[in-house]
Amino acid sequence: MSNRYSDLWKSQKWKQLRRNLFRLQKRVYKAVRDGDLRKARSLQKLILKSRSAQMLAIRQVTQLNLGKRTAGVDGKSSLSYKERFEVLKKLVSSAENWTHQGLRAIPIAKKNGGTRMLKVPTIQDRAWQCLAKYALEPAHEATFSADSYGFRTGRSAQDAQKRLFLHLKSNSNGIKKRVIELDIKKCFDRISHSSIMDRLLAPAGLKMGIFRCLKAGINPEFPEQGTPQGGVVSPLLANIALDGIENIHPSIRYADDMVFILKPRDNAEKILDKVRNFLAQRGLEVNQEKTKLTKTTDGFDFLGWHMRVQKNGKFRCIPSVENHRNIRKKIKAVVNNSNYGAEVKAQKLAPIVRGWRNYHKSCDMSSSRDSLWFMNKTTNRKFRKEKKVNRYRANELCKKGFPAVGYEQNQHVNVKGTKSPYDGDLVYWSLRNSILYDDATSKALKKQNHSCGHCGHRFLSDEYVHLHHIDGNHDNWKQKNLMAVHQSCHQEIHWSLPLGKPKG
After folding, report:
1. Cα-based torsion angle of the residue sequence 469, 351, 164, 184 in order, rounded to the nearest 10 degrees
2. What is the pLDDT of residue 354?
3. Left if phi > 0, otherwise alpha if psi is -120 to 50, otherwise beta: which for 475?
4. How far apart are CA 353 and CA 371, in angstroms?
5. Are strands 104-109 and 115-120 parallel, antiparallel or unpaired?
6. Euclidean distance between CA atoms 304 and 319, whole angstroms
7. In whole angstroms, what separates CA 382 from the centre of its chain?
8. Three-state secondary-structure class, residue 149
9. Quick check: pTM over 0.70?
10. How far apart are CA 77 and CA 70, in angstroms?
């Protein structure tokens, strides 16, 4: 019986399902752009009822999301193939009248010594939230500000970094400007439910489902506030409520992290008063302790970077002290682990270091600190203390554990204006998505004309690009052995292995 459900799940035509959903989402985006909200709501109902959308939502939360193994209040950390089809039945019958179960609260340590509560829904509630997001996101992408970058499809922290460069570079007289580093007090915990519901572009059934979703995660002390951190749809709801704050004054926003750029004659207090009024309407307030006015020449931290305009007027961006401290901790945790040898340590280090370097590849990484020179030398020395690892082998392992990434300050190309993947411009978005990758992945994408080597579908921004080693040998990095594929396609190639852990 279990094999029957397994074969049925694996035989799904995911490429066609994705195409079906995307066609509906494009129509929702266009309807909202054209001001036809009635048509948009009708199309959103179709998405909720669409089997393609329902199947993709279940696959997303059970196979693709990073937190797919996190259990909710029911204790389930994964679903069998049969249970996935049972969730599908429930979505078919109740998608427009969904009732949420309770949330599992997980305390997360904050850097100031306190804790915040991560509230995790059950897997089937996450599937419904993902389905709701499929319907809501294209409608709101049609209205979102061009200066908002956090938790939005097709946009990244690097876009925000480049926008700050454009505001503060020497040609823009950045040396004379100031910035307001805005911090919103307990944004996700205090955001008003009514401020979200009033701005939601959705049919009645979907609105009621979102309302129940919000009420499932309330703090008894604040029954009308908060969107549960840990929910699939929560970042989108926060963006919906905060959208428009960018219009107060030239600014860059990444979720609830925000900086306002002030010219010499701008009145900081007047701008902050407008911000306070805007936030008050949404049940929020400015965190006075962390919000500050800073000269660009003094420098400020934003999204893991330290940004500063130098005395010569040039903009400089490097990894922040805290960000650098975190990567050192991660590297030390691997290198000092006595449970495995140098070979395994090098394999575990590579994705950590590559990910960190890729995030910062548009920064000035010329210093020995930022190039991780000291960490590399320390790792090399510790590798050489292990048996059967001589100097030459230690050098090889360090090259593998600290893979090189090409750096060029401010090289990132920004997303154009208010463009969205839902506008249907597949050529623009597939080419842009390819630019975000480098080295072997970039070459594979170019060779494949920016299409998946497994399904042939264009790469959009909603799914990671994986490199598949055709012969299964991770040490064989010859170009002919590498194929760029969707994350989900990579899993399909390796169905015989545990879900989410493809070997090649």
Report:
1. 120
2. 87
3. alpha
4. 10
5. antiparallel
6. 6
7. 35
8. coil
9. yes
10. 5
How high is the pLDDT of residue 131? 96
Which tokens sit at 376? 């590399």
Mean pLDDT by 10 residues, the chain (504 residues): 79 88 95 96 96 94 83 86 93 91 82 76 93 96 93 90 94 94 87 91 94 78 68 90 94 93 94 95 91 95 94 94 94 90 89 90 90 91 84 87 85 88 84 70 74 72 74 75 79 57 43
Distance CA 294, CA 77 (A): 45
Q: Taking a C-beta distance cutoff of 8 angstroms, is the pair 2, 77 a contact?
A: no
pLDDT at residue 502, rounded to an integer: 40
Q: Which residue carries 């179709």 as its tokens?
A: 46
CA gap 171, 416 in Å, rounded = 20
Helix (H, G, I), strand (E, B) or coil at 161: helix
Structure-block tokens of residue 152: 């939005």
Contacts of 274 (CB under 8 A, 6+ apart): 248, 249
- The pLDDT value given to residue 498: 44
- Ramachandran angles phi, psi of 295, nearest 5°: -75, 140
The whole-number pLDDT of residue 295 equals 95
The one-letter amino acid at 296: T
Q: What share of the chain is helix, strand, coil (3-state, %, to 5)?
A: 50, 15, 40
Residue whose tokens read 């990073």: 66
CA-nearest of 260, 258, 256 to 237 is: 256
Those residues with Cβ within 8 angstroms of residue 97's Cβ, 6 or more apart along the chain or in another chain: 205, 208, 209
Strand, helix or coil for residue 182: strand
For 64-85, give the DSSP string.
ISTTTT---TT--S---HHHHH
Joined tokens for residue 500: 């989410």
The residue behind tokens 């963006």 is 239
Show the tokens assigned to 396. 């090889």
Q: Tokens 């179960």 map to which residue?
A: 101
Q: Phi/psi of residue 417, each to 5°?
A: 45, -125
Cβ–Cβ < 8 Å for 312, 318? no
pLDDT at res. 437 = 67
CB 134 within 8 A of CB 47: yes
Q: Smallest Cα–Cα separation from 342: which of 285, 400, 403, 290?
A: 400
How far is 292 from 287, CA to CA, in rounded Å? 10
Instruction: To the nearest 10°, report the CA torsion of 79, 85, 88, 90.
Output: -90
Q: Is residue 55 packed enough to be buried (19+ CB in 10 Å), middle (13-18) or exposed (0-12)?
A: buried
Query: In the numeric block, which tokens belong to residue 381?
Result: 């020395």
287's tokens: 């965190």
* Cβ atoms 204, 43 nearer than 8 A: no
Question: How far is it, in rounded angstroms, from Cα 289 to Cα 285?
Answer: 12
E strand residue ranges, 324-401: none
Cα 1 to Cα 7, 81, 128, 428: the distances in Å are 10, 10, 26, 45
Q: Which residue has the tokens 């969730």?
A: 87
